[in-house]
């Protein structure tokens, strides 16, 4: 049986979170500042239900936390180092050719 190192599992979770454009937008928005769900939904132009599903995914992955603020809940990155990692990834993406596409994993076994 293949044993996967804990850091590999964490990287895979981070990759799955980044695999969705809405979750990427959420992480980048939260990189800028903590926010309430209603504000995030408006900023991203999506329904609160859809936003809730994506926030739940990011919470389950350990990338964001929900912080009670009175009767409301505010979301923020779970660790400030995630913000730095997102900045580093954004910088690295510049080196990747923008006109390239990655075939679906099911079709080509890639990504």
UniProtKB/TrEMBL annotation:
Any single Pfam family the record assigns to this protein: HTH_5
| GO MF annotations in UniProt | cadmium ion sensor activity; DNA binding; DNA-binding transcription factor activity; lead ion binding
In the record, biological process GO terms are: response to cadmium ion; response to lead ion
Specify the HTH arsR-type domain's residue ranges.
3-100
Q: Which SUPFAM superfamilies match?
A: Winged helix' DNA-binding domain
Q: What CDD domains is this protein classified in? A: HTH_ARSR
Coiled-coil ranges per the record? none
The UniProt entry, under InterPro entries, shows: ArsR-like_HTH, HTH_ArsR_DNA-bd_dom, HTH_Metal-responsive_Reg, WH-like_DNA-bd_sf, WH_DNA-bd_sf
Name the chain's protein: Transcriptional regulator
């Amino acid at each position: 049986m293949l044993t996967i190192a804990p850091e590999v599992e964490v990287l895979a979770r981070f990759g799955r979170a980044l695999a969705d454009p809405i979750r990427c937008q959420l992480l980048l928005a939260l990189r800028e500042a903590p926010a309430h769900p209603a504000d995030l939904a408006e900023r991203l132009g999506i329904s609160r239900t859809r936003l809730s599903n994506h926030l739940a995914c990011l919470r389950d992955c350990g990338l964001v936390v929900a912080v009670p603020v009175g009767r409301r809940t505010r979301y923020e990155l779970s660790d400030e180092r995630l913000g730095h990692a997102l900045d580093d990834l954004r910088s690295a993406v510049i080196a990747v050719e923008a006109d390239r596409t990655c075939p679906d994993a099911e079709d080509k076994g890639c990504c």
